[in-house]
Design a protein that fits this description.
2 domains; four-stranded antiparallel sheet; about 35% helix; globular
Length: about 250
């Protein structure tokens, strides 16, 4: 596997499985959720999920659920052993693995926040995150990796828009002006985002789309980095990464 991050994650999961190898034969089911199932009716917010740019996968393992955002959705049925054998260099299979990982760790009682919040909760989630960061850090410059309009709007209400930089991978969003902030390129402008900002808010989808490495390295280098959302719940637990998902269930 080319990704050292996912290699470490998978090795840790193998260690957990060794405590009870009977789980390897248990079935997992992964399906795609419609926008209504995934996020309900969040009002007028321009979420990528509602425009079909991202799809939410949901895995079921025993009585637990786990989710993962992906641009490469693939339904899947198999056993936990077969999921552990997936090639995580393939983004479709990596998204399946992450969703199942979240369901598996939830089943073990090791994590919560594996199901995305719905309806008006994303707006409230953004407000809680912004309030938390203001109280704990009061950063001078916040970098947001991943266009999440409710979160960005809440940050702009709590801080000044000139204190916030945003990058995204969706070409349709590049150079877009939102709340006075120009959305920059999530590949070309990532290094500058990390250098310019004293605190980073990073969507957990970076682990599903294989763009996590610079942010993970920044976290290891003692940069203030928070990963947000349900996708990263299991990975954050395994890698001991700061994680924000106040209204996930």
């Amino acid at each position: 596997m080319r990704s050292p991050i996912m290699t470490e994650v998978k090795n840790t999961v193998r260690e957990l499985i060794e405590q009870d190898r009977t789980v390897l034969d248990l079935p997992v089911d992964v399906r795609t959720l419609s926008p209504l199932e995934a996020i309900g009716n969040p009002g007028d917010w321009d979420f990528p999920l509602l425009r079909g740019r991202e799809i939410l996968l949901q895995a079921t393992f025993r009585n637990s659920f786990g989710q993962a955002f992906t641009s490469n959705p693939t339904p899947y049925q198999g056993t936990l052993a077969e999921v552990m054998a997936l090639d995580l260099d393939c983004l479709e299979k990596r998204a399946i693995f992450i969703a199942v990982l979240n369901a598996f760790l939830n089943d073990r009682g090791l994590i919560k926040s594996t199901i995305h919040c719905r309806n008006n909760d994303p707006e409230e989630c953004g407000k809680q995150i912004a309030g938390y960061l203001k109280k704990k850090y009061n950063p001078s410059k916040i970098g947001v990796a991943g266009y999440q309009p409710a979160l960005i709007s809440a940050l702009c209400e709590t801080f000044n828009s000139d204190q916030i930089e945003v990058t995204d991978l969706n070409a349709d969003n590049l150079e877009k002006i939102y709340q006075g902030i120009k959305i920059k390129d999530g590949i070309k402008d990532t290094a500058a985002l990390i250098e310019n900002c004293d605190l980073l808010l990073v969507t957990g989808s970076v682990f599903a789309n294989d763009t996590a490495e610079p942010f993970y390295k920044a976290a290891l280098d003692q940069k203030s980095v928070y990963f947000f959302g349900t996708t990263v719940s299991g990975i954050a637990k395994i890698l001991n990464l700061p994680h924000l998902c106040p209204l996930g269930s």
